[in-house]
Amino acid sequence: MVVGCETNEAIIALKQVDESGSVCGQVARESSRSAGAVTEMRNMRDRTRSRRLFGWRTSVVVGHGPASHARAGFFGLLATVALLLALLAPLASPRVVTAQDDGDPAIVPTGDNASSGGQTARTSSEDWAPPTRVYVPETGQSIDGLFLDLWRNGGGVWAFGNPITPEITLPNGHIVQYYGYARFEYWPEGDADGNVVRLGDIGKELRPVTVRRTMLGFKGANARDPQAALEAMAMVRAWLPLNETQVPEDSDEWRFVPETGHSVATGFKDFWERTGEAGYLGNPLTEEYTVAGVTYQVFERGQLAWEPGTDPYMMPVGKLLAERYGLDQSAVEQGDVPAYSEDLFIPPPPPTPTPEADQDEDAAEREPDPNGERWIEVDLTNQYMRAWQGDVVVKELYVSTGRPGFDTPTGTFFINSKVPIQDMEGVIGGEYYNVPEVPDVMYFTDVGHAFHGTYWHTNFGQVMSHGCVNLPIDVAEWLYEWTPMGARVEIHN
Predict the structure, then answer these.
(1) Residue percentage of the chain with pLDDT more than 70
(2) 399 and 460 in contact (C-beta within 8 Å)?
(3) Rounded to 5 degrees, what angle do the CA atoms 153, 119, 457 make?
């Protein structure tokens, strides 16, 4: 296992997946999720168009064994059919006030002009600023302020889906916005951990509603369908916690989660563990249950599904709840808000400083000394790299270095090993990553910091990695050939 330093966006490169995103994640302070989470989402996204939200037709399996097919009595059957109808009943719509799209929306405050949609002209790196609000044409909604920060830093459409509603102000002062696979929430007073921006526990809202005693006398056409009754019973039983004193020992295929009293097993266990466990999906709220040939399990912030012959995939719970609550998903006018593109967040290049020996007027036209030292400079403040030959810059460009908590070290280093291509896997700061076939790797520390090609993002000029220096593929190939072993590396703020 190679201890590399990949970014949490490592699997953005798997572009074969569709535009929908995964469900939920962690609170804002943990929004930079593990590479494993994004990896799993993107590896499986081509299966997540979710051919059904809920199916209610064929045999039922609860947990990990075959379902009991015991015959229910007539009155028991009526009761379970009534329960099924209750489960399928629409949820009560929340009492909300939708922000008006009048140039002063109910935006999440950022401490500056968060309602501004325009982008500052890129006249220089000193007066440039990224937009604080963007428009998503795919759904006709905008994202701004802290919600925009969480969406971009957490993986964007690949992790959450696109926004499907405007921001909604609740009577308690909270602001929410629904995405295909998540709900963003702004709590002015902060949650129990002090976070003002968090991801909603949308999985909890899939819990079955209470069945009134008066419903037990219902006599509908479905009363003659024992399969529907079994399916209703299976889903209800799945929400009941396990008895801790009777659960078996954990194994490679099964694991008990005491925080919620439920277990994860086989494919769902693998998915949950590889995507950050409770830090991504939250803990399980149900056991597995199978309906219409599809196996489901609900977690605090989402729902997994599985069909024979496929990998586990995410259910679009954010969209499901928005539809159940009757929320307006109509497109809004774009106005002067820029259409989202990561290009909007790439600053113009800073002026290139040169050493004192190169201050003469002809410096820019000088050819590098063929015998001059080849060395590399990385400017962390501007996310900029220069390759020097003697006192002449031969190549310069934006790069991506370590994000907060995974800072790229400063100081003088030397290239100590070169690997043309390498699979990178490991855990850094509690975050798991697994990035195959990373090209043109040049290590400059003994603890995994390296220059290397980056195929999973193009967001150069922004901190993105776990400490490495991310380079565009073509530049990494050039630098790998150009840089000799032992070359000096100067990294500074």
Answers:
(1) 67
(2) yes
(3) 35
Average pLDDT of the residues of the chain? 74
Q: Angle between the 35-44 and 266-274 helix axes, to the nearest 10 degrees?
A: 130
pTM score above 0.85:
no
The 3-state DSSP class for residue 422 equals: strand
CB 105 within 8 A of CB 144: yes
Q: What angle do CA 165, 41, 430 make, to 5 degrees?
A: 105
On the question of pLDDT at 490 being above 90, the answer is yes
How much is the pLDDT for 366?
A: 75
C-alpha span between 61 and 340 (Å, rounded): 44
Confidence class for position 297, pLDDT limits 50, 70, 90: very high
Kindly report the CATH class assigned to 353-492. mainly beta
pLDDT tens-digit profile of 71-123?
334 334 333 433 343 333 333 334 333 333 333 333 343 333 333 344 333 44
According to DSSP, the residues that pair with 447 across neighbouring strands are none
Q: Is 60 exceeded by the pLDDT of residue 373? A: yes
The angle subtended at Cα 232 by Cα 62 and Cα 68, nearest 5°, is 40
Backbone angles phi, psi at 112, to 5 degrees: -135, -160
Domain with CATH 2.40.440.10 in the chain: 353-492
Neighbours of 372 (CB within 10 A): 13
Residue 107: CB atoms within 10 Å = 23
Structure-block tokens of residue 290 = 């199978």
Q: What is the largest CA-CA distance in the chain?
A: 97
More confident residue, 232 or 487: 487
Q: Which tokens belong to 199?
A: 């991801």
Contacts by residues 478-483 (CB-CB < 8 Å, ≥ 24 positions apart): 478/395, 479/376, 479/387, 479/395, 479/440, 479/442, 479/451, 480/418, 480/420, 480/440, 480/442, 482/374, 482/387, 482/394, 482/395, 483/374, 483/376, 483/387, 483/415, 483/418, 483/442
Do residues 139 and 162 make contact, with C-beta atoms less than 8 angstroms apart?
yes
